[in-house]
Design a protein that fits this description.
Keywords: Ribonucleoprotein, Ribosomal protein, RNA-binding, rRNA-binding. There is one protein chain. The protein starts with a strand and ends with a strand. By secondary structure, it is mainly β. Strands 1-2-3-5-4 form a five-stranded mixed β-barrel. It contains no helices and five strands.
Length: 76
């Protein structure tokens, strides 16, 4: 099964070897026919602490690393 890859912006890098990535998805509202933006935050593993707040980053689905981390940060 292929691994999912999402793109987003780093919103926090305060944790050691962890970043928080905000991913935005857009879809058309079924009734109003208007484009709606929804965001979700994902915790991603950053082994070298190389990503900083504001960076564009890709995250890839992986095995559970901790309670909240199921993604790994990869360079875009």
């Amino acid at each position: 099964m292929p691994k999912r890859v999402l793109q987003g912006v780093v919103v926090s890098d305060k944790n050691d070897k962890t970043i928080v990535v905000q991913v935005e998805r857009r879809y058309t509202h079924p009734l109003l026919k208007k484009t709606v933006r929804r965001t979700k935050k994902y915790h991603a593993h950053d082994e070298k602490n190389s990503f900083k707040v504001g960076d564009q980053v890709s995250i890839e689905e992986t095995r559970p690393i901790s309670k909240n981390k199921r993604w790994i940060a990869i360079s875009q």
